[in-house]
Write a structure and sequence with these properties.
Blueprint (H helix, E strand, L loop, with lengths): L5 E7 L5 E7 L5 E3 L6 E7 L5 E7 L8 E6 L5 E3 L6 E6 L4 E6 L5 E5 L3 E5 L6 E5 L5 E5 L8 E5 L5 E4 L12 E5 L5 E5 L2
Length: 191
């Protein structure tokens, strides 16, 4: 959270669905903030600290894929306008959202409160993450033969490959991208 007191996470339910929750940093107490039972992913705090934007897949066939915002106090859900088909959201400090279009993996940028997505570039990306400056982001390159991270300039969409200390065979749907406090890429791998 913006005040560093809570973490927005996805929690695996006993029935196998992933739901957005929060964990209190001091107590470790976790609680769900959504009431639906479908797959939710990539929770991001909004700048006001009382809303979380996340992606959802309500059906196994991917129908209804899009972005939602939940008020963590009232548990009220709001659908992000015109976000159908977008996934893997990342929220900047000014609440602009960088998301990826289903199937094409093209990056889109939109305002979380008004929607109106616009395609950023004709490149394909995965798991975008904003950098602290709010003017650039990093993302995985789904088309690379090896593990490659792209640095994206916003709003131009220009991409620059980053040099990695470690490379290897990509496992695009088993690797996750994050950013540490110094804007260095973090790669997490499911095993």
């Amino acid at each position: 959270s913006p005040d560093n007191r809570q973490l927005a996470v996805v929690i695996n339910e006993p029935l196998g669905h992933w739901r957005v929750g929060i964990i209190d940093v001091d107590s470790g107490r976790k609680q769900f903030v959504t009431s639906e039972s479908f797959n939710e992913y990539n929770p991001n705090w909004m700048s006001d600290g009382s809303h979380i934007l996340f992606g959802h897949i309500p059906a196994l066939d991917g129908a209804g894929l899009g972005l939602d915002i939940v008020d963590i106090k009232t548990r009220t859900m709001i659908k992000v306008s015109e976000s159908g088909g977008l996934f893997s959201p990342a929220v900047a400090r000014d609440d602009h959202v960088l998301a990826v279009q289903e199937n094409s993996f093209y990056p889109f940028i939109l305002d979380a409160t008004t929607g109106h997505p616009r395609r950023l570039a004709a490149i394909r990306i995965g798991y975008p993450r904003w950098l602290r400056d709010g003017k650039s982001a990093i993302a995985l390159d789904p088309d690379a033969a090896d593990l490659r991270i792209l640095h994206l300039e916003i709003p131009s969409g220009k991409s620059i490959p980053l040099t990695l200390a470690r490379s290897g065979r990509p496992k695009f749907f088993r690797q996750w991208l994050g950013v540490d406090s110094g804007d260095r890429p973090l790669i997490i791998e499911d095993r």
